[in-house]
Write a structure and sequence with these properties.
Number of helices: 10
Strand order of the largest sheet: 7-5-6-4-1-2-3-8
Number of domains: 1
CATH superfamily: Spore Coat Polysaccharide Biosynthesis Protein SpsA, Chain A
CATH architecture: Alpha-Beta Complex
CATH topology: Spore Coat Polysaccharide Biosynthesis Protein SpsA, Chain A
CATH class: Alpha Beta
Largest sheet: 8 strands, mixed
Distance between the termini: 18 Å
Radius of gyration: 25 Å
Shape: elongated
Order of helices and strands: EHEHEHEHEHEHHEHHHE
């Protein structure tokens, strides 16, 4: 009998862990598969780990990995994928915004032969600003990257063992899974669902600043076009500067030297300074990523776990 792994990163979710397990078990029990539910405690500061440990003592199919600190969701998911033993794995958030009742549909897609079965959420409940920002961001991302990004497609998906192994074969330290899912290719099926509020009724733990940083990661991780844009912008500014010098020289030759152009000078300095700072920032992002990759530090460190890394690739 095949094994389905449920991989659940958790950060400060003590109030949702027990409910999450109960709902998952309710959906998984009727399926003709063995299953394991793997919680990854990503350095939680509340009682999340204690809740997970209690479940693991009561249920043999509950696995856990507790990281030494908060390494971020990307690292937590990677830890789960490295240690899950399933013929397929389903990635889910622990706040119940990923509805467990969709598990059956995800598994059916797997039975149909798809290597990725993706749950695509609507924008219901999102603020108008966030929805518009998302639309703009994905259009920008798709225009400057070589992989396809789809608004609403996140980490909530089923991955076949082949898809899991393909992701694990990618060795970069700076991981942006939304792009990696697309980069590995493989057959894909989409399942649409309505956006669900967090189980505790709170807003998403993603701040606007966090979303901006995550968005920058997506742009930088999959292409070098921002560097090329800086290159083209430099040539454009050089051309406009030479044109301005030519026009100004012509006016001086024709009319003589007039009053000093303070406004023109200040404007030119501010515009050029802004372009230079943006260009340095873009270059700095790439250099920073190169620096992180060359250090070869692990994506995470494990504190305690009841499961070893799976070597059955």
């Amino acid at each position: 009998m095949k094994l389905i792994s449920i991989v659940v990163p958790a950060y400060n979710e003590e109030e949702n862990i027990s409910s999450m397990y109960n709902q998952l078990a309710q959906e998984l029990e009727p399926l003709p598969y063995r299953y394991e539910i793997m919680f990854i405690n990503d350095g939680s500061r509340d009682g999340t780990l204690q809740e997970i440990l209690a479940l693991s003592e009561a249920h043999d199919n509950v696995k856990y990995i507790s990281l030494t600190r908060n390494f971020g969701k990307e690292s937590a998911m990677l830890a789960g994928l490295k240690r899950c033993k399933g013929d397929a794995a389903i990635l889910m958030d622990s706040d119940l915004q990923h509805p467990p009742h969709l598990i059956g549909e995800l598994v059916r897609g797997f039975e149909e032969g798809f290597h990725q079965v993706v749950a695509k959420r609507s924008r219901t409940g999102d603020s108008r600003f966030r929805s518009l920002f998302s639309v703009f961001y994905y259009r920008l991302l798709n225009s400057i990257t070589d992989v396809d990004f789809v608004d609403g497609e996140g980490d909530f998906r089923l991955l076949s063992r082949k898809a899991i192994n393909s992701l694990l074969a990618l060795s970069e330290t700076n991981r942006f899974s939304k792009g990696l899912y697309s980069w590995i290719g493989l057959s894909k099926k989409i399942i649409n669902y309505e956006n669900v509020l967090r189980a505790d009724g709170q807003q998403s733990k993603w701040s606007f600043g966090g979303l901006i940083n995550y968005g920058i990661d997506g742009i930088i991780s999959f292409n070098t076009k921002p560097l090329r844009i800086c290159f083209y912008t430099g040539f454009l500014v050089l051309f406009l500067s030479l044109l301005y010098i030519g026009v100004t020289f012509y006016q001086i030759m024709k009319e003589g030297i007039g009053a000093p152009g303070y406004f023109t000078t200040i404007t030119a300095v501010l515009v050029l300074g802004g372009i230079q700072l943006i260009s340095l920032g873009v270059i700095g992002e790439y250099i920073g990523r190169i620096y992180n990759e060359t250090k070869r530090r692990p994506n995470y460190l494990v504190d305690i776990s009841n499961v070893d890394e799976y070597d059955g690739y």
